[in-house]
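Lab notebook, bench 4. The sequencing result for the construct came back, and we need a structural model before the next group meeting so we can plan mutations. Quick request posted to the team channel:

Model the 3D structure of this chain.
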Amino acid sequence: MAQQAQQKMPTGISSLDPIIDGGVPMGSVILLLGDIGGGNYEFVYSSIVNTLNSVSPVADTGAHHTPQINYTTFTRTSDDVKQEIAKSFPMEDATKLKEKIRFDDLSEIYFENSVVPDDWYSHGDIITRLQKRADHAGVLAQLSTSLNTAEPNSLIVIDSITDIATQCTSPHLWHNLTGLLRGLQRISKQRNLTVYLLLTRGILKEEEEREIADIVDAVLLFRWEESSGARRQRVMYFEKFRGVMTHLEERDLVKFAVRISKSGGFEVSNIRVVI
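Done. Here's the predicted structure in token form:
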């Protein structure tokens, strides 16, 4: 168990991984909570691109690269996500996005009881759609089935918790969602799954946002702040990180200024000391 606890998965962010001793602890469920445009999506895209561009393990850190990336969407198509990643950050070989990432598109279940016309999200005929609907057990159940098929040591991206949490308006559905996240927190340790949960800040009720933050192992907060000259600047906080926070606080490393560029991707451009 001690050896397992020391295993790290590089985020792929070259300016961040050395600060956290090679990467994040494998088995972590990490909430990427961001203001709109705050950088949480760019963190994920940059992490994926840099991970796929890497060809060798990180030496002398105990870290190694994830063998599989699972990307789950509820409202977006896999082509949309791949095009956005490819447009945002250059890749040495863009075909890796297709070959190395397993996309799970759960939009047919997500939209099936909505006002959205069938042909906006499904290309099957009506018989096929009805058969699929008969087999569907709900988006949360389908998500758990999808997660259950992930290979050990995988990186999982759920895009996004915002999409499914806003559908869980009844106490029963909210209980199911938080129960699923608690179960994910347990199984991630057993299978060394590293999970990124994308959530947009300020859409859910504050108590709902805090409950999700309490369940996960880590909360990375991506925010806009006013800097000198009234310019807006992205910053990233380690609001919580079990097993890593004490190390960071000993070195006063909790809050970072962030720069995002097409050539460099998501970068920690400046380290700010907590006052």
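The CA atoms of residues 133 and 139 lie 11 Å apart.
Will bring this to the meeting.
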